Amino acid sequence: DALAPSLPLQEDFVYHWKAITHYYIETSDDKAPVTDTNIPSHLEQMLDILVQEENERESGETGPCMEYLLHHKILETLYTLGKADCPPGMKQQVLLFYTKLLGRIRQPLLPHINVYRPVQKLIRLCGEVLATPTENEEIQFLCIVCAKLKQDPYLVNFFLENKLKSLASRGTLNVISEDTLKGQDSLSTDTGQSCQPEELCGATRVEHTESEEEPPHQMDDLSTSLDDLNVTSLPEACVVRPNQDYNLVNSLLNLTRSPDGRIAVKACEGLMLLVSLPEPAAAKCLTQSTCLCELLTDRLASLYKALPQSVDPLDIETVEAINWGLDSYSHKEDATAFPGKRALISFLSWFDYCDQLIKEAQKTTAVALAKAVHERFFTGVMEPQLMQTSEMGILTATALLHRIVRQVTSDVLLQEMVVFILGEQREPETLAEISRHPLRHRLIEHCDHISDEISIMTLRMFEHLLQKPNEHILYNLVLRNLEERNYTEYKPLCPEDKDMVENGLIAGAVDLEEDPLFTDISPDNTLSNQEWLSSSPRASPDHPKNDGKTEVHKIVNSFLCLVPDEAKSSYHVEGTGYDTYLRDAHRQFRDYCAICLRWEWPGSPKALEKCNLEAAFFEGHFLKVLFDRMGRILDQPYDVNLQVTSVLSRLSLFPHPHIHEYLLDPYVNLASGCRSLFSVTVRVVGDLMIRIQRIQDFTPKLLLVRKRLLGLEPEGPIIDHITLLEGVIVLEEFCKELAAIAFVKYHASSTP
């Protein structure tokens, strides 16, 4: 009685299926397209019946129509008909049927052997030939399978086809007689993928399967029973690739090469779903037995090589933010087109895809993909371009490196990029060994290149690299050389100093919180001690010294008074006071603290008693070049000076006590032969004082140059000594910026 209502449904279902099978028995004309037959209509009716049956029953309960579909291996038969494409267009109908079945039926179908086996085989038919009429249906089918796996990741194990033993041990395979195998042996093989032999990377890279597994060319078809197939079918084994076992990935990889952009994007989305599956077996298979790594890196390489030899760095920098799925650029509609823009957008959008894929991927997959990008693209393709001697080539290559440094968001890919640029060294540098990592050495040398454009571009690349959330960057460039504080000379405190430090206060000190100047610093840059005085943080027991935290008023005034009054011009011009620097420093310091939070840096410098002060100090190649350039600030172009000081102020913002002491404490006792940012700047000022004497009307000229730079005065006749005058202005502004940074950092460390 319970079954009675569904009998008409089942009869209906069987009727439609029989109608399809009768067509094959009775028809003599198999050239007529499927759309001229009733097959599409019967398949649609069967789907409707299955959906109706599921809606009428308790959830999870399999009805008689679904039982019939599974028991009579209808999907297996449809697969065979689709593979033969008989009648013409049948493959399209079969793909649609599978897609709708998986999409519209709520109960899990993929765990059934009579579903996942034909699904596996149909997957192999997808992407065999590019630009076929069925591409659209193929990608829809593959994407619905990916979506199902995303819902139930464990199901992916059914699609790792050489996991024969594990499947057999679960009793999911039918026992197949030796005769069947021998019979299959003599059949010619049919490679189920359109990979060319040279692309079959898996074949050369993956260890051969263990001897107790079946020979590779029998694997795929052990599970196929040929008895109920109406059309002769060849086994789809791939002899060229011993581990060809993740066909879902292989088919999607083929479709990413589709000339139809929408198909390629859908295939990329499918891969994005698959790499994120948490199943370790699938992750291993993905990276070891498919061409995924090669596809990503080879396409990156070919798109990079397709770029013009020289592209304007400004174009590389300003081409709009790239989103890999929206690579639909039309040259005709673009008013800002430039030669190579199409190629540049294609390269940057594919880089964005690789970055997003690695970001989404399961951990081991992400590491393998990022390492492949490092070896096959960064080292294989980009490094020779960065190491070349042609200035035009260096500039373009550095601008592209700068762009992808800015663009990368995946931590795993960033790590590989950092190792590529800087190497892995973490021990202190020595002058003799600065070229240990040739690319790092070359890029740092380029910060002081004969071409100003190359210097500026390389400095900008380093400036953006320093803002990336990766601890190794700052450690490798700067911190490893400051670890032992051997830039200082240890002088024990005299009794009077000790009293001052222990009391933590200087007579007449004012708390900054109550100081009206803290919120609104006057444009008059030299502030009296009384205004700047503040309480130093109390010394901790194991750091009886002042911890490199000289009272902030002294530090701030040291920087503000560094440039002598006769060389200052900002107080003559409205809006060039010190308070804007304070606001900027406050915001930037907060951002840097957020980046560095998880690196667990110490709050105070390493105790001098524990430091190896005897070791020879070398500031490291990076700071050496920056200090050298800083020393030439009066003789360098304005744009170069802005970039050099910008990198130095970025470095001084980092909340590490050694960086603070070395770059921002003018009172540190420097060991002999050592230089610091302050000592380099003092030398520049000494040189400036001598040179000012030789320039007539120095102050009015300086003021005119400042107003021109600010756009307050129209450009007029050329002023002599323009480079020096612009250098003086940058120097004054840089000192104000350092004073603001020192103040903000001090204030942050003294407020709980």
Keywords:
752 residues; mainly alpha; 34 helices; 56% helix; 0% strand; elongated
Care to describe what's here?
With 752 residues, the protein is an all-alpha fold. It has helices spanning 7-26, 39-56, 64-71, 74-84, 90-104, 113-125, 135-151, 164-169, 178-185, 201-205, 216-219, 247-255, 261-275, 280-288, 292-305, 313-318, 341-360, 363-386, 391-407, 411-422, 438-446, 452-466, 471-482, 495-503, 516-519, 529-532, 552-560, 579-596, 621-631, 638-653, 657-664, 677-692, 698-709, 722-750. α2 (39-56) runs parallel beside α5, α5 (90-104) packs parallel to α7 (135-151) and α12 runs antiparallel to α13.
Structural class: mainly alpha
Beta-sheet strand percentage? under 5%
Q: Enumerate the spans where pLDDT stays under 50 for 5 or more consecutive residues.
A: 163-244, 500-548
Count of alpha and pi helical runs: 34
Quick recap:
Residues 540-549 have a biased composition (Basic and acidic residues). This protein has 752 residues and is mainly alpha-helical.
